[in-house]
Amino acid sequence: MNRKAILYIAVPAIVIAGAASFHRGKRNNELDHQATVKSEGTVPVTLVPVQERSFRPAVAFTGTLLAVNRAELKAEVTGRVTRVAVQEGDTVAAGALLGAQDEDDYQLGVQAAEAQAAQARAQALQAQRDNDRSVALLEKRSITRQAAQQAETAYNATRAAAQAAESNLGMARLRLKKARLVAPFAGQVARRAVQPGEMLNPGQVAFEVVDNRKLEVRADLPTEAMAQVKVGQRATFRAIGLDRLVEGRVAQVSPSLSQDGRTLRVRVEVPNPDGALKGGLFVEGVILGEGETKSPALPATLLKAQDRDAEIYIVEQEVARRRKVVLGTEQDGFRPVSGLAVGAQVVDSGKDLVGEGTRLRVISGAAPTSANGGPAAGGK
């Protein structure tokens, strides 16, 4: 067996052996940790106290983020695409050229119409001079009335022809303008649906431009929210991929209910000057009403459940006790909890190793409290 063949066999074997050794070591460390916990009889945890916080009445909503200014640019004339000036993702200014159809042909049409209009104007000007001269000669009786009328008729005809030529020139310029697809506002190219050489027909989408500096969420609320939701109210929401709470304002409340009478359409505007948010994100949030009520609360990051119920562990005499709580909607990073007293100590880090009756060892955070709310013996 040659050296190259030996390497082909040996290298994979070494990699497999190394991986197996790594996972074996990781498992041994986990078993050692569990053995230590079992021998000591305690689980190290950190605690978070239940706080009293103010919450406003809230109406939940779901929806999709969309740019307030967004436009699909469609062809208005038939023609072959001769130029594409942008790529998807490019930032464009208002009026910037995105693409063009048969631009040279339409430009030649404009030039021909300009020449025809110039010729018609010159003929009309000469006819006007002839008519003015005939009027003066008629007053001196130097020409017949019939000759004067012929001059006037010729002038009116050339003037009409000049007006028709100007109209044709305007149409040619309009066709050239329609053959050039330009950005209607400053933003980004979200979609480019054409390539040079393709034929475009009227109504066919060529580009999509969006301005993500101001977004909106259109949400359908239950009719019960009709008396609570007003223009100008604050709204907060979260979206997948974002680690922060986003804020917006109710910009519009529909003046009527949906056709089935079951939902109310509202529009929430969301400033996005840094462009961190993108159109198309699905969001879940709340519209905050007027007035405030105080309630026990916990950080939203501690409560993983997205529905109304959750299970947590509190500390009583250094022992974990399971509690089922009812959760409210998140506001400013906290969620109201029903079923816990203010000051109760809730297990945070280490909760995955805790069960009913587990003895706990607090390694950091607030001190545990006893069942009556006072400090527990031995708490830190």
UniProtKB/TrEMBL annotation:
<protein>
    <submittedName>
        <fullName>RND transporter</fullName>
    </submittedName>
</protein>
<feature type="coiled-coil region">
    <location>
        <begin position="110"/>
        <end position="168"/>
    </location>
</feature>
<dbReference type="InterPro" id="IPR058792">
    <property type="entry name" value="Beta-barrel_RND_2"/>
</dbReference>
<feature type="domain" description="CusB-like beta-barrel">
    <location>
        <begin position="217"/>
        <end position="284"/>
    </location>
</feature>
<comment type="similarity">
    <text>Belongs to the membrane fusion protein (MFP) (TC 8.A.1) family.</text>
</comment>
<dbReference type="Pfam" id="PF25954">
    <property type="entry name" value="Beta-barrel_RND_2"/>
</dbReference>
<dbReference type="Pfam" id="PF25917">
    <property type="entry name" value="BSH_RND"/>
</dbReference>
<feature type="domain" description="Multidrug resistance protein MdtA-like barrel-sandwich hybrid">
    <location>
        <begin position="69"/>
        <end position="211"/>
    </location>
</feature>
<dbReference type="InterPro" id="IPR006143">
    <property type="entry name" value="RND_pump_MFP"/>
</dbReference>
<keyword id="KW-0175">Coiled coil</keyword>
<dbReference type="InterPro" id="IPR058625">
    <property type="entry name" value="MdtA-like_BSH"/>
</dbReference>
